[in-house]
Write a structure and sequence with these properties.
Elements: H1 6-9, H2 25-34, H3 44-58, E1 62-64, E2 75-79, E3 82-86, H4 99-112, H5 117-133
Antiparallel strand pairs: 1-2, 2-3
Helix pairs in contact: 4-5
Length: 155
Amino acid sequence: LTQEAPSETVKPQEAPMQPKQPEDLPDRVAQGLRDVFQPKAAVSEDMETAARIISQTYGCSVLLKGGHRINDANDYLYRMGHGIWLYGKRINNPNTHGTGCTLSSAIASNLAKGMELEAAVAQAKRYLSAALEAQLDLGRGSGPMDHGFAVKGEY
């Protein structure tokens, strides 16, 4: 690699720096979106507008979850000026604790497997829906879904 000591090869001021996320970024995003739509309504047009604004403001892909909607569980993925709807049915299961973490972990795992973003999100959504459909019920309250429903399956 190099014969020189690392401290002499790469000086701190030469190392590439990532922009630091402001501490209040989530609050600033939320405040900006309050003027766009009512989160409880989560109507399709509002989700599309919110995703576009977040993406254009922060230069990132955006997945807006529709799991709290009443009649469906449609999600909206917006990336690089283009959005797609990922349609899903609402699953009647009180055990939804950790669905967001499960979805993000499944997306990350699918990306690590080499899937493109849209495919990774769609596959993760199918996994999450199937885990909810397994209807695991542990104890009282909102418990976890059944992450092990398909240990030897397609996921």
